[in-house]
Amino acid sequence: MNSRTHPLEGRELAAWMLARAKDAGAEACRVRVHRRRFVSVRYRDRRPDLVSEASTRGLAREVFKAGHYASESTPDLRPASLEGFAAQVLSRALLTEADPFRGLPGRERYGVPPALDLELADPAHASLSLGERHGVARELEAACMDLAGPGLLSVEATANDQDSEEWVLSSDGFEGRERGTEFWTGGLLSLRDEGGRRPESWVYAGVRRRRDLPAVQAVAEELVRRARAGLGAGKIASATLPVVVEGRCAGTLLGGFLAALGGRSLQQGQSFLAGRLGERVGSPAFTLVDDPFIPAGLGSRRYDGDGLPARRRGLVDGGVLRAHLVDWYYSRKLGVEPTTGSPSNLVLPAGGRGLEAALKDLGRCVLVTEIIGGNANPTTGDFSAGIAGSLCEGGRPVRALAEMNIAGNHLQLWQRLIEAAGEPYPWGTLRVPALVFDAVAVSGT
To answer: 366 and 261: one domain?
Structure first.
């Protein structure tokens, strides 16, 4: 009997939806069921400014029939609603134009996901109390106010955490389940400056395991230090200079490069990296690895969005392009083997020196601590971005910079990477140290 009157959860719900798709006439189907609980506490002016808790559940289903395809999701998991949803998705699929490349990978490609404990879920999350969450945010705000002193304009301190779980089942034999937790501590801070300026800073540290969060005092010290570094910021004359981009904002630059690696860009003829596998696209200092197996990594996983087993993959090796990011669908359109449609944890290995030593050797250079906006063209590789940071001489900052820009082309930019210096940025899916480029066009006055 296909109908039901009582709610199902997790795997049982996914299996029920698969059966309903078959009953409706679908040739193939993939179902994702997820749940998430998110709690956020934010302090401002020494009192709670925001306290929120949201628990969400949802279901997404992809159906395939004779090349027709549809993908839809719903947060309404009531039995009566799902009865209608199950039939509607296939009806909508049949309205689309048939695409012979649509389909599931097939049982033979799934293999067995790596039997690894990636430490994605912290058992201690269940015992975390609302009072403890308030305590972190309150302590962080108080520490910032004490450290910043009378020059403080505003500070907001936040403690967030979430517990999530997903189940994935497909009609061709894939079954996956992952559970993960995340904990975030950080805030925004602004100081009073001359001329009505108000330099701001942000710091957010995120981890899978609560014990890995940095000390509240350390977060406050970094917030205040970064805001003070922006006091008196202005422009310098436009020039071509060595530029050092901090790891925490290097993702904007890498994002323009990664966009050209994607299967859609390649298939649509909108990638400056098309046809360049095995060619040099950067300097010997440029190595980029997609590593899904970092213990407790925010991007770690055992399978990707297509259900294909995760694997560690070199994308760029010593400046030579080794792999594109191609999911199952675009691999069929391109006639190539799939890799993965999206990266997990991206690692750019650090060199042997610290950031201070690298800055000292550069003489006059620009240290970029913030990238603001910007754009990148995946077809040509051209990019530009707003920046803030410091002008450095002899390894020391001599002037704060703001309202400036860097611009260039990715095929030239990564050839100018001379070093990856210091410790990788630890609070995200990008494990990237400071990137040292020998000559970048910097626009100011």
So the answer is: yes
